[in-house]
Amino acid sequence: MTSAPSTDPLALYRMRDGLYAIDLLITAVVHLDVFQQLDRSPLSLEGLCSRLGTQKRPSDVMMTLLKSLELIEERSGLFHLTQLAREHLLPDSQWYVAPYYAGMKDRPVARDFLEVLRTGKPANWTSLRDEKAWAAAMEHETFAKDFTAAMDSRGVYLGQALARATSLTGRTCLLDVAGGSGIYSCCLAAANPELSAVILEKAPVDAIAKASVEKRGFGERITVHAGDMFRDAWPVGADVHLLSNVLHDWDEPELRTLLKRSFESLTPGGVLLIHDMHLNDAKTGPLPVAQYSSLLMCITEGKCYARSELEPMLLEAGFHSVEIRPCAADRSVMTAKKR
Known about the structure:
Rossmann fold
């Protein structure tokens, strides 16, 4: 829990995290013809949604990806084509490459993106016809076990980076909300000997977390509290709350609910840690974050958020002193304090 690797796995993370982005680009180029629509006239996000018949959340993710690819630029709230897009994605150009993408239009994920954009509802996990959407699939033990193991495998590296980027000196109790296997609690506890932790997880993941924590030797310092973070009361008494890779699964109304619940149950003077991939304030990148946001938009009800989106919600909930620091593998940790 405290030994860093001698090599940098960044490329391995980026390959997996960016897997869906090509299909979103295919959908924008071939299925929705976004570039010809913007050639007709610059559009706001709302205007684009109206013209294309798409929903706000997935459309926002699509346009963030296109901005990060430098195909679109946003000026005064309107999307404009860049010269790169004009030369290569408009049919009157001799360098038009949309036909190069057209043969890929029936890829399962590209078809799923079109449906997600039109309905706003997530597709089945990894586009498998016999699988459910992620949130529903997590209620079944086999899927939950496999998914939690996958997130645990990345957490060994990401959790240690989070611990190095976060000062918890003087803090005594961590509430790890929807903490999965508990890997982040274990990493933070290993780096902070005075820190105990409670993992809030619903069945069947709560049992998985308990077994994982005990296997790693933290059973005496880390406990598991069974509960639904949206419906059940959160354990009180923690002076640190952790939302690691949680907010990106949900849309803004759910984020406001979670931030309000955190503020209400956090000890006065406590700190909230939001560990995730975060876009820059202008939502023009970084490209790896925009690519990962494409994946999240397709299979969950969320996306990657920018500090400029999260900070107003944090202030609305009652938090103050919002800061952000880099961690590892394009992740960062945003902190906010309760007076």
